[in-house]
Write a structure and sequence with these properties.
Elements: E1 4-5, E2 15-16, E3 20-21, H1 34-37, E4 47-50, E5 58-63, E6 73-75, E7 80-84, H2 101-114, E8 125-130, E9 137-145, E10 155-162, E11 165-176, E12 181-182, H3 184-191, H4 202-210, H5 227-230, H6 236-248, H7 252-266, E13 270-275, E14 286-292, E15 299-308, H8 318-327, E16 333-338, H9 344-352, E17 357-360, H10 362-371, H11 377-387
Parallel strand pairs: 1-3, 5-8, 15-16, 16-17
Antiparallel strand pairs: 2-12, 3-9, 4-5, 6-7, 7-11, 8-9, 9-11, 10-11, 13-14, 14-15
Helix pairs in contact: 6-7, 6-10, 6-11
Length: 393
């Protein structure tokens, strides 16, 4: 159960990872949490600069996490937060937005890459997402701009179109730092212009002084997921997976090609070599390699992929899973992709026996689609039509 801070306690509350901060009950902007929690943050907008836009001492990034066109995403396993800028409709220059959020991104990332010895001038970023009711928000972490793994890709201007009009927006990547609690004392000292006060989180100090990212990573505590954890969330995610199922339910071999593409979208190190013919697949719908190592000295690990286009309530069972496991060759691993879920017994046996099989279920497919930019049923449908014309059985 997440810790909950009532609206009356916001002005003195610490920021605790994944804690809920309750909104007010008046039914207007006075119910806003962030302005009460962080004085000077204002009461609206995804970007909220504290201390002025030209040189803020602190920045709040807020996301509803449900914008299908601009799918902000937190990878809790790696600590990377992908956040889209505020130029989300035609008519404005990339940096000329009313809230000036994109200009702020440009400035912070320019300092990060061009004047790394001036990192102390980059404000701390506090990440919040929408809560489950009313104006509640959830604190998701203290973030620093950039990622250690791929600095060349941490701020990218991407083109989109709406009703025929083209425009650009930023996709920014932040690292959520390994800090469980941001104390109220530090928030106050940051607002007073002392970001490296003794109360500063150790991970923030290390990043500012040494440029070393200490990400907050969180491995799952269970070895297999429940049926509900594998199913896409009701609403948008469910509709995206239903598009996939509806398109391929009468053409399972076509879904094998789609499954191979989804695997590649999930991880660019996956390379599908062959989608097998239905009559000679030998228990494997596709085979490929996973590339590991530096570019100058990579090795390729072989894998076999099995794809199951099943209705939402029709889970993959022991029999289907055993078919994939029995076909894995020496030093191979397997990938099971399904529009539904892997049944409890099959999943439990898979993990208990330590078979090297990756499970990509309906919830994972939805996440892959959203991260790729196809966050609406129409977008998914257009992608399917363009990439997977009806294939012969």
């Amino acid at each position: 159960m997440a810790k909950v801070f009532p609206f009356s306690a916001l002005s003195t509350a610490d920021l605790v990872i994944d804690a809920v901060y309750e909104g007010g009950t008046k039914g207007n902007t006075a119910d806003d949490v962030l302005g009460k929690l962080i004085p000077g943050a204002g009461n609206q907008g995804g970007f909220r600069a504290v201390g002025g836009w030209d040189a803020p001492c602190l920045v709040i990034l807020y996301s509803s996490m449900d914008d299908p066109d601009w799918p902000d995403f937190i990878d809790v396993y790696t600590g990377v937060f992908t956040y889209f800028g505020d130029n989300k409709k035609p008519g404005f220059d990339l940096h000329n937005t009313p809230r000036r959020g994109n200009r702020l991104l440009q400035s912070c990332f320019a300092t990060l890459h061009n004047a790394p010895d001036q990192r102390v001038k980059i404000p701390p970023f506090l990440v919040f997402t929408k809560g489950q009711k009313g104006r509640d928000v959830v604190f998701r972490g203290l973030a620093a701009p950039g990622v250690e793994a791929d600095p060349a890709d941490d701020l990218v201007a991407i083109w989109r179109s709406k009703k025929g009009d083209r425009f650009q927006n930023y996709r920014a990547k932040f690292t959520i730092l390994d800090t469980g609690t941001v104390c109220r004392e530090w928030i106050n000292t940051v607002r007073a212009g002392e970001p490296l006060h003794l109360s500063a989180p150790a991970a923030w100090r290390t990043w500012v002084e040494k440029g070393v990212y200490g990400p907050l990573t969180a491995e799952p505590t269970i070895e297999y997921r429940t049926r509900e954890e594998q199913k896409p969330a009701p609403g948008r995610d469910q509709s995206l997976v239903q598009c996939i199922y509806g398109y391929f339910k009468d053409n399972p071999h076509g879904f094998e090609h789609c499954a191979a593409r989804l695997a590649g979208l999930m991880d660019p190190n996956i390379n599908i070599e062959t989608v097998t013919r239905p009559s000679v697949d030998g228990g494997r719908d596709a085979v490929g390699t996973y590339r590991v190592g530096p570019h100058a000295d990579r090795i390729a690990l072989d894998f076999a992929l099995e794809a199951k286009c099943y209705a939402a309530e029709n889970g993959v069972g022991v029999k289907e899973l055993s078919r994939l496991i029995s076909r894995l060759r020496h030093r191979q691993f397997g990938i099971l992709i399904t529009t539904s879920f892997l049944g409890h017994q099959a999943y439990q046996e898979l993990r208990s026996d330590r078979h090297p099989v990756v499970v990509i279920a309906g919830a994972d497919i939805a996440a892959i689609l959203v991260k790729a930019g196809w966050g609406t049923p129409d977008a998914v449908r257009n992608w399917l039509i363009a990439e997977f014309p009806r294939l012969p059985e």
